[in-house]
Structure formats: structure tokens, C-alpha cells
Specification:
Elements lengths: L21 E2 L5 H11 L1 E4 L5 H17 L12 E5 L1 H4 L1 H7 L2 H10 L7 E11 L25 E7 L11 E2 L18 E2 L7 E5 L4 E2 L9 E10 L8 H4 L2 H4 L4 H7 L32 H7 L5 E5 L6 E5 L7
Parallel strand pairs: 1-2
Antiparallel strand pairs: 2-8, 3-4, 4-10, 5-8, 5-10, 6-7, 6-9, 11-12
Helix pairs in contact: 2-4
The structure holds 2-oxoglutaric acid.
The site of 2-oxoglutaric acid has 8 residues, from strand 9.
């Protein structure tokens, strides 16, 4: 994100989502992935079981009641946020492993890593009168020049209806392919309108930001994001979910939050599997796992090289000619 771009400068979006970007929950996964390839994002309506959304909202309410409003342009001055959502809500943990989201992550992240991890979790409740957030790329927490491939996949779940006036996420379709300096014009932005329980899925290289809440009610969203397993997670999941907490989670979720190898020999603890700390694996003194070793040969290389004349590092993806 650029500090030079203030919330005042955030362009107003046109309301309509581009054709071919909104899908019902039972749409073929290939169509959803094709839309994300083309536009950088897609919406899947009514993707979450309404009972899970109710349960997660009820789990979060007591925390939100205690939290202070944001204090920066980026965080908003009428917005309440909480993090570490997995520790706060078993329902959130189930939503985090939604099969459509996992398949999208498999498609975009798994070619470049042995496994992906949960990167960051936030509940974002825009209050009435909140102004649009500055437009940014989530993965600009990594010092990368654009265009760059997706290194993260984000979801924004509508925990309340996203209406045309309550601040549904503004997105710049196609911006996953834009040059580093290009900023969206107002006509290049769309506002996400979707019913409660729906999800906006977008790539980490897509320009976006929360919208203006011109309604007299809140707009509650839950963002759950995933990153390549060899990158540091934005939210420190190991301090947020220490072994005593992690061991209460389903084992697949333990692995998703990071109690697993992020690659071959990447992330061992005391020369063993991180799951040994939660009692889910024997301490076998192996610094890698059968799964990590088996997966490493299919991983396509990221070629990180300084771009000629550039001040910053750029990342170029190429296929290894030897393996295609
Ligand atoms: O709340 C939203 O719609 C998007 C928020 C966002 O992009 C962020 O806080 O980084």
C-alpha cells in the first residue's frame, strides 16, 4: 500500500460487477478459477452455511464490543477490527477451510509451494459514515515490483449483506496484471455487492480497498488470507495460536495455520515435525516429512532477480526448462 494515497484520494467505484465474476455456490470450480485468472477476483454467493455465519458472528460479538475504533486513515476512524479469529471462533476455522477457497488456493498457490498457510485473519466492521480506504495490494507487505504473480490469495466474507451503499470492497478488475505505478481511475473500480454468507475471492496482487459506508448500519466482513508456505505469514500464527491452543483445532487446521512444513526442511522444531508440539505426530527427529519431500518435485521455481535499473527487487516467475 502507498502512504501517498490517502483515503480522500480513493476513487468512487461504479456499482456493477463485471459480467462473469459472480457465481452461485454450486458453480463449477473451473469457472470460478477462470474468472479469477481473467479479472483477479470472483464472488461466490451464499457460499457459507448461514448457521456458521451466525455462530462466527456470535463468537466475535463480545470481542468487538471491547475493541477501540481504528486510529489511522488505513484502519479507518469509524471501523472496528479484531484479529486472531481462529482462536476466537471454531466456526471461523471451518469457514477458513471452505472447499471452494481451498481449491482456488490449490490452483494459484500450490504450483509454487509445497503447501500454503493461513496468512492473516481479520474481522472488519465499518461503522456508519466510514470513508473509503486507500486502494492497495495486500501482498505489498512483501517488497515486490509489479506486475508480479500472486503470492497470497484473499477472501472477504460478507458477515452482513454488502449493499451498494454500505462499503462493500472496491476492486479494480484486471489490476493483477497492472504495472507497479498504475493507479485505478474511478471508472476502473467496482464495488462488491453480495448477500451475507457470500465471499469475494481475490489475488494478493489485485488493487482494492473497503468502500464508503453511506448507510446508517454497520458492514461486517471477515477476511481470511493464505500465502505461499515459504513466506512469512502476516499475522504471527504461532504466537497467536501457541501449541496449547493449536491442539484444540482439527489437525488439518493446525497444518493450515502453520504447524506443518512449509517446504522440504522448512519449519522444523527441535529436529522434528511441528505437529509433535500439539501431540498430532511422533517426535521422530526427521527435519522434513514424507509429504513435503513428495511435493517438492512438482514445485515450479520463483526466480528472484534484481530488475535492471530498478531500485527494488522484482520477482519473475519462470518454468524450469528441464521440467517444463
Ligand atoms: O474491508 C474491506 O472491504 C477491505 C479491507 C482491506 O482491504 C484491508 O483492510 O486491507
Amino acid at each position: 500500500m502507498s502512504a501517498a494515497q490517502s483515503a480522500d484520494a480513493a476513487p468512487l467505484p461504479s456499482p456493477a460487477m463485471p459480467p462473469g465474476t459472480v457465481f452461485p455456490a454450486d458453480a463449477p470450480i473451473a469457472a470460478i478459477i477462470a474468472a479469477i485468472e481473467e479479472h483477479g477476483f470472483a464472488v461466490v454467493t451464499h457460499a457459507a452455511d448461514p448457521a456458521l455465519v451466525d455462530a462466527a458472528n456470535a463468537d466475535f460479538d463480545p470481542y468487538l464490543d471491547k475493541v477501540q475504533l481504528g486510529r489511522t486513515d488505513f484502519a479507518g476512524f469509524k471501523t472496528r477490527r479484531i484479529n486472531n479469529l481462529i482462536a476466537k471462533s471454531p466456526a471461523c476455522g471451518r469457514i477458513a477451510m471452505h472447499p471452494v477457497v481451498m481449491q482456488v488456493c490449490d490452483h494459484f498457490l500450490l504450483p509454487h509451494c509445497v503447501r500454503y498457510h493461513l496468512h492473516v485473519t481479520s474481522l472488519i466492521e465499518l461503522g456508519p459514515g466510514e470513508r473509503a480506504q486507500e486502494i492497495h495490494r495486500d501482498q505489498s507487505i512483501y517488497p515486490v515490483r509489479y506486475p508480479a504473480p500472486p503470492m497470497t490469495v484473499a477472501t472477504i466474507w460478507a458477515m452482513e449483506d454488502f449493499t451498494p451503499i454500505n462499503g462493500g470492497t472496491n476492486v479494480a478488475p484486471g489490476s493483477h496484471r497492472w504495472e507497479h505505478e498504475r493507479k485505478p481511475q474511478p471508472h476502473e473500480m467496482v464495488a462488491t455487492v453480495m448477500p451475507r454468507g457470500s465471499v469475494l475471492i481475490y489475488l494478493g496482487n489485485v488493487l482494492h480497498g473497503s468502500g464508503t459506508n453511506a448507510s446508517n448500519a454497520t458492514r461486517r466482513a471477515m477476511t481470511l488470507q493464505y500465502n505461499l508456505g515459504w513466506l512469512r505469514q502476516e499475522e504471527n500464527q504461532y504466537l497467536s495460536l501457541p501449541p496449547d491452543v493449536a491442539r484444540t483445532l482439527p489437525v488439518e487446521l493446525q497444518k493450515l495455520v502453520g504447524y506443518d512444513f512449509g517446504g522440504s526442511y522448512l519449519g522444523f522444531v527441535e529436529a522434528g515435525h511441528p505437529l509433535a508440539l500439539t501431540g498430532e505426530a511422533p517426535h521422530d527427529m526427521a527435519r522434513t516429512s514424507v509429504e513435503a519431500e513428495a511435493a517438492k518435485d512438482r514445485v515450479e521455481l520463483f526466480d528472484i532477480a534484481p530488475a535492471t535499473g530498478a531500485k527494488h527487487t522484482s520477482i519473475v516467475v519462470h518454468r524450469d526448462p528441464a521440467t517444463g
